[in-house]
Amino acid sequence: MAKRHIYRALPVIGISSLVALLSIYFLSPLSTQKVIEFSGNKAVDQQLLYEKSRIKEEDYTLTTFLHKSVYEQNMKTASPWIKEVHMHYQFPVTFKVNIVEHKVVAYYVTGEDHYPVLENGEVVETVTPASELPSSYISLKFSDRELVRQFVQEMKSISSSITDKIVSVDLTPSKVTKDLVTITMKNDNKILVPVSQITRKLPYYKAISKKLDDDSTIDMEAGVFSYSEQSIADAKEQAEKEKAESTENQNEHSEEASQEQNQEQNPEGENSSGNE
User: Fold this and answer.
1) Which band of pLDDT confidence, cut at 50, 70 and 90, is reported for residue 31?
2) Strand order in the sheet with 104-110
3) Domains, the chain, with CATH or none
4) What angle do CA 167, 148, 158 make, to 5 degrees?
5) Nearest 5°: phi and psi at 139?
6) pTM value?
7) Cα dihedral angle (21, 24, 29, 33), rounded to 10 degrees?
8) What's the CA gap between 139 and 254, in Å, rounded?
9) Phi, psi at 121, each rounded to 5°
10) CB–CB of 79/125 below 8 Å?
11) Which tens digit of pLDDT belongs to each residue from 90-138?
């Protein structure tokens, strides 16, 4: 009988002991001890991340664990640099926060200032010092944020064999194409293409460029046409030559007409003198 009573009492004793231990734990300083470790953040300061997380020193370790998805979301909105946040608990009081930042795909350039353009199309409103700029990068020369986002989106499917050769992108709208840009390559080739058609048309450049000399222009505004700067110079020279020849011919015709007119007038003058 005594053993039976003991067995019946064991669950009650166990639960009571657990409650007592939890009570002692929550009343002790250990319950609020937390170590937050950050990794992966290069552009974003970890102090800013901690402040934006809204984790408080007096928060229980247990409640921090239970609400970690909320803290992850809070930190994700701390900066446009942040792409992903993953928070993991490590017994007994450590929380490891791994930050994944967006990559820089270009720099918006105005004057001497360079602003990072991220892979999600956002422009970071903080100037990058010249000493921190990479050796090679794409310079965007237009400030329309919506057009920048569209440009980045269109460029996502473009091969690195093309993007790695881009130096700058200027907005050069025509009368019919407001989003026409001029892409300048490292070999001085220029590509005219609407931002809205980059994904469809720009891949053709790889094959076309093999047939062209450096310093050529590929016009993709309507169709796909190519011409070199030398051909443009030759065409201008030929046009000027033809214009000069045309002017010379006109002068010659004018002189001939003037002489004929004088000849017609002179006989009349001679006849008049003879009659007198």
Assistant:
1) confident
2) 113-118, 104-110, 139-140, 166-171, 180-185, 190-194, 216-219, 225-228
3) 30-101 (3.10.20.310), 104-229 (3.40.50.10960)
4) 55
5) -100, 120
6) 0.74
7) 30
8) 55
9) 90, -5
10) no
11) 988 999 999 999 999 999 999 999 999 999 999 999 999 999 999 999 9
